[in-house]
Each structure stands twice: as structure tokens, then as C-alpha cells.
Design goal:
By secondary structure, the chain is mainly α. It folds into two domains: 45 residues, no CATH class; 53 residues, no CATH class. It contains five helices and no strands. It comes from Paracoccus chinensis.
């Protein structure tokens, strides 16, 4: 089977039925596709690639390994999004002359400046 998003789940499920599951990285399958990519051509290419004696396979991940990797990736994503939001606030406030210290520690001060309508730091939108 070609390794993809849900292949580890399906590999575990098929393995429970007693089948030997071997996952092939997509980059190793691609040279065997002879025509347009579709399900039939992909299946033929995977079959051909799996027959090669030198083909390297990817082991099916257990749920605990996948869960730990997911937690790590989500944490990294949240950190990047937090950094992106803080940098955007810094940039927007700098356009109005509000210079505040960099870093996540100053985020509470940034939010307070934006939320306080009486601070006079930001112009209030005019009612339409």
C-alpha cells in the first residue's frame, strides 16, 4: 500500500485481519507510474514497486506513536500561530506609534491596548 494520510490506520486494520502490510513511500512509487495518475495506474505502480527486491518499506505506526507525533505537531502549530498573531499586533500597533517590547511576554499588554477604547492609542471606527 502507498504510504499516505490514512495508510497507518488502514494498515493496522488490515493487519488485524492477518494480512502482511507493507507501506511504500510515494516517492518510491512514482517512477513506476507509466501514464496518468489514477487509481488503476497507482495500483499497478504499487504492485510493480513492491515486487522489487531492493524496495524499502515504511513500518506501520502504532497508535501511541501516531498520537505522540500528533501532539507534537499540534503544539508546534499553536506556537507558530501565537507568534504570528503577536507579530501582526506589533506591526499594526507600530503603524499607530505604539511601540511595545517584543516577545510573548508582552502579548497581554498588546491585547490590553487594543481592547481599551479609552486608551486613545487607536482611533475608534466611525459609525456608519
Amino acid at each position: 500500500m502507498e504510504a499516505c494520510g490514512a495508510s497507518h490506520f488502514w494498515g493496522r486494520e488490515i493487519g488485524k485481519l492477518g494480512h502482511e502490510v507493507r507501506l511504500i513511500p510515494p516517492a518510491y512509487v512514482k517512477p513506476f507510474v507509466k501514464r496518468q495518475r489514477n487509481d488503476a495506474a497507482d495500483a499497478e505502480a504499487i504492485f510493480e514497486a513492491a515486487l522489487r527486491p531492493t524496495m524499502r518499506f515504511v513500518p506501520v505506526k502504532i497508535e501511541e506513536t501516531q498520537g505522540a507525533a500528533m501532539v507534537f505537531r499540534v503544539r508546534e502549530l499553536l506556537i507558530r500561530q501565537r507568534t504570528q498573531a503577536i507579530k501582526a499586533l506589533h506591526g499594526h500597533l507600530a503603524e499607530f506609534g505604539q511601540i511595545v517590547p517584543q516577545g510573548a511576554a508582552s502579548a497581554a499588554g498588546l491585547i490590553a491596548i487594543v481592547e481599551d477604547p479609552d486608551s486613545g492609542c487607536l482611533p475608534m471606527p466611525s459609525p456608519r
